[in-house]
Each structure stands twice: as C-alpha cells, then as structure tokens.
Design goal:
With 553 residues, the protein is α/β, with parallel strands linked by helices. It has 20 helices and 15 strands. The strands form three sheets. It has a six-stranded antiparallel sheet with strand order 2-1-4-5-6-7. Strands 8-12-13-3-14-15 form a six-stranded mixed sheet. The protein has a three-stranded antiparallel sheet with strand order 9-10-11.
C-alpha cells in the first residue's frame, strides 16, 4: 500500500508529508484548495506526464517521494526484472522535476527512468480519474474492460505475435503486386551493374599493384641512371678501378699475409665473403637494369585501368573488396527478382498460413470474451443496482471485424436505465452521474482480479448526491476491505465512511498561496463534514448531522 507521500514545491504545495493508512482514505477540501495537486503529485511520481507549470513559482525544482510497504510479490518481481532490489516488501519511488524540463528519478535510491517508474507503478497503484469516465463514451475502449476481467494477457500476446507476422507478410505481398514496373526497372539496372562489374574483372589489391607499377614507370629514367652509376662504382670503368677489383686486390694481399700470421685468416675469410656479396649485388643490379620497362604504352594502359577502377569505385564501393561484394549482392538480388513468381507463391502460402493461424487464435480469444462478457454484464449490472440504479440493464454487444491487433471483436456497452426501454449505446443515454456509478461498478468488478493493492478515485462522486452518494461510499468502503482505497470527494456521506480523513487546506500568507494536508482527528472530521453539508456558516444542526453520519458509518 501507499504508506507515505512527500511533496515539495508542487504548484501551491510548498512542503507536505502525508502518512496514509490501510483501508479507506478520504481527501476533502474546498474547491481550489489543491486536492487535484495531490493527485497530480501522485501521478508525477508514478511516471505519468506532468504539466509544465507543476513546479511552484519561485522554485527551481519540485520533488515527490512515494513509499509503498507490504507490496505484492508481483510488484517485487517486476522491480527485480527492471534491475531494482526490494527489501522487506518496500518500494520507494522518487522524482525530481526541474523547471528546465530535466527529470531525476529513483527507485529504492537507485537511478531510474521515467518509463521505469511508469512500468513499475502499474503494479502498485490504479488511479481512476474523471477522465476515465470518458473511456465509457469511447466504444473502441470497451473491449479493454472485457479483457481485464478475462485476464487473457497471455492469449492476447500470443495472438498479436502471429498477427504482426501476418501483417508483415501481407505488406510484402502487396508490395510485390503493386511494384511490377519497379521490379522490371530494378532488374534492368541490376543486369547493367552486374555486366559492368563482371567485364571489369576486378582483382583484390589490383589498385595498389597498379599504382606501384605506375610509380616505377614514371621514374624509370631516374632509377636506370642510379643503377648504372651504382654498377659503375662497383665494376669500375676505363679510368678507375671499381670497388670489386680493389676489394679483390685487398683480399689477395690479406691472403698472403695470413699465410705467415695465422690470426689474420679470419679477416681474410670475411673479406672473401664481402667480395662474393659485392659480385652478387652487381649481378642483381644488372638484372634490375634489364627489367626496367620504360614502355609509354604500358603506362597508358595502367592509367586507363586505374581510371576504370576509380569510376567503378564511385558507384559500387571504395575498394575492390567492396565492389566485388556489391557484385555478389546484386547477383543475389537479381536472382530473387527473377524468381518473382516462385517467391510470390511462397509468400501467398505463408500469408494464408499466418492468416488462418491468426484467425484461429482470434476466434479463440473471441470465445473467451463472449463467455466473460456474460459474467461482466451480470456483475456490473448488480453493482449498479446497488448504486441506486435498480432498473439498469447492461448488455455487451459484439460485432465481428477484420483482423486487427485486438482480434476480430468490436465491443460496445449498451444500457437501459428505465424499465421498458431497450438497451442503447452508453454514449447516447448516460448522464454524468450514471457514468460515474457505472465506472465505479466496473472498477469494483475488476478489483477482485486486479493485482494492484492501492486504488485511487479522484472525484468518483461527480454528478451524484443523496442516497446514491451514500451507496457509492459504501461500495468504496467495501472495496477497501481487501485493498487500500483513496478517494477525493465532495460528499459528506462518502467522507463519513473513511478510516482516515485528510483535509486539503489553502491559506494566503504574505501574498503567497500555501496548501497543506492535515490528518483530521474526530473533532476535525465533524467540523469538515459540517462544512461540506452547510458551507462557510456552519450551524449546530450541521455539526450534529456530521457527528451522526460518522457514528452511523
């Protein structure tokens, strides 16, 4: 249950700390005192959207903290699945809202997102506001209540998984049928691209190799001159001895010396090796000179080839690997397009298979809903009769639709509030008070199947007075036996039934508005009920009546 709510700098509330109790909690106060602000604060910490002006004037930020104790195993498991640990069955939700629009959220002191607050809060609190009555005026939302009673989330999820697969295949099939001209154009383009790439006979690393050869050809004269000079120095010419001849003479002299001084043998061997190495280098230089190709036609061929590769790279990829990969992909795509008829038949088969499977699952869902609708109508009708609508008749009208994410069912609630009248759409005949009682009846019926342990009703008594208000209060009291119930009300009959009564009080201090939430004792409750009954000028009669209401409750 929601044990504590701390609010700071929310609208006209500067600071307030509310300790709620088990059972039936009621909040009352004059119009404009700030009852809606308490509900807005709860909505904020539950991750709902908040108005831009929620932060109190003159403050940089607003803060709300909600402490839940003795939470259900469902809530604990949900918290753990979101990555938050729970201790002793306690969950604390916190949200700070800055005027800049930035939010800081926490779950059990750990950072969280607004969406995490919202997801977890659905296992903690169920809020019924005046806007929920509008749902009854929207037939498209009526199916939601039947599904809630049926508890068919698993079946609905299973159906939707198949339905979305079916929709995907249906779209693919429609695209095939609609884009025949596009398909033919794409085939023509792919054939051209494949031919262009295949004719190029690209090889991986070809650009690098050609550029190296191009560099060699462009510098062949410089290379040749340098090699000839190097060879001349090693071999010598008519004017000078080369390095090889001089090294040969040095070796001969050193060899003679080594005959007489054995320690020089090693030097003689090393010089011999150097002489052999120099001769080998000279041979290799000769080969290099012979290999140099200064053919201008070859350079032209290389330029043309590199230009082709460059032009292709602008279309199909920066490297030979990327271009060859594009070629493979284009060939596969072309094969798919050429196999159009085969693919189309496969899609048709898959489409029919998925359609039949989705339809079967939708019909199973529909069967569950039809069975539950009978129980729903009977139970809600019974609750509405208790709420001073004894002649009401409720019917859940089904009509079959095309497959949709909800199945094949369209549901609309039909009611008759007077004897002898046929049930008609809720949207046409229900008044505000009737809508409020119908919604309370629905919430009461669904409560026994709801895992949420705290229910909040924001002005459920709209359009209701007299004995009807008394019955609404009795019904809320009944629901509060199994779960915590909170109610914002303007009716003394309802407030008198509270296990815990809070007054929302507004004061003006130094030209500023302050709202505080006060937990009332017995004397305070009597005065507040008398105010609701009699207005500003409270009479003794009103006080006596208020006291009697509490005693009777």
């Amino acid at each position: 249950m929601l044990s504590n709510l701390y609010i700071e700098n929310i609208a006209v509330i500067e600071k307030t700390n509310i300790d709620f109790s088990e059972g039936f909690n009621v909040l009352t106060g004059e119009t404009g005192a700030g009852k809606s602000i308490v509900i807005d604060s709860i909505n904020a910490v539950l991750g709902q959207r908040t108005p831009k002006n929620i932060v109190r004037n003159g403050s940089e930020s607003a803060f709300v903290s909600a402490t839940f104790t003795d939470v259900s195993k469902f809530a604990e498991k949900k918290a753990e699945s979101l990555g938050f640990s729970t201790e002793d069955g306690m969950i604390i939700l916190q949200r700070e809202m800055n005027i800049s629009g930035r939010n800081t959220c926490r779950i059990n002191s750990r950072p969280a997102t607004v969406s995490a607050l919202k997801e977890l809060s659905s296992y903690l609190v169920n809020i019924h506001g005046q806007s929920d009555n509008a749902e009854l005026m929207s037939p498209s939302l009526h199916l939601h209540y039947i599904d809630a009673l049926a508890q068919n989330k698993k079946q609905l999820s299973d159906y939707r998984e198949t339905y979305y697969e079916y929709v995907k295949v249906k779209e693919e099939l429609e695209n095939l049928n609609d884009d025949e001209e596009k398909r033919l154009n794409e085939i023509e383009l792919l054939r051209y691209q494949i031919e262009e790439l295949e004719n190029a006979e690209l090889k991986i690393g070809e650009s690098e190799s050609l550029n190296a050869e191009k560099t060699l050809l462009l510098n062949s004269d410089k290379i040749t001159k340098s090699l000839i000079k190097s060879k001349s120095i090693l071999d010598g010419d008519d004017d000078i001895d080369g390095v090889i001849n001089m090294t040969d003479d040095a070796f001969s002299s050193l060899s003679i010396a080594s005959r007489y001084q054995e320690s020089l043998s090693d030097l003689s061997d090393r010089l011999a090796n150097a002489l052999y190495e120099l001769k080998d280098i000279t041979d290799l230089i000769n080969d290099a000179i012979s290999d140099i190709d200064s053919d201008p036609y070859r350079l032209e061929e290389i330029e043309e080839r590199l230009d082709l590769i460059y032009r292709l790279s602008k279309k199909y990829g920066n490297t030979e690997e990327e271009m060859l990969s594009y070629l493979e992909s284009a060939q596969n795509k072309l094969n798919e397009l050429l196999d159009f008829d085969t693919n189309k038949e496969k899609l048709k088969e898959n489409y029919e298979k998925l359609y039949n499977l989705a339809l079967k699952k939708a019909q199973k869902l529909s069967s569950i809903r039809h069975n539950v609708a009978i129980e729903f109508a009977s139970s809600v009708q019974k609750e509405m009769a208790f709420l001073e609508m004894p002649n009401v008749r409720l019917k859940v009208a089904f009509s079959e639709t095309e497959l949709s994410k909800s199945g094949v069912d369209k549901v609309e609630f039909l009611i008759s509030v007077n004897l002898g009248e046929d049930p008609k759409p809720v949207t046409k005949i229900a008044s505000g008070g009737e809508l409020s009682r119908m919604m309370l009846a629905i919430k009461t019926v669904l409560a026994s199947h709801d895992i949420v342990e705290t229910m909040i009703f924001d002005e459920i008594d709209t359009g209701i007075s007299g004995s009807a208000a008394q019955k609404v209060g009795m019904k809320l009291k009944e629901v509060s036996k199994d779960r915590q119930v909170m109610c914002v009300t303007h009716q003394a009959q309802i407030a008198a039934l509270a296990d815990c009564h809070f007054l929302i009080n507004k004061e003006f201090v130094n030209e500023k508005t302050y709202t505080e939430v006060i937990k009332l004792d017995m004397e305070g409750r009597v005065k507040e009920l008398a105010r609701i009954i009699d207005g500003v000028n409270i009479t003794q009669t009103a006080l006596d009546h208020a006291k009697k209401l509490i005693e009777n409750a």
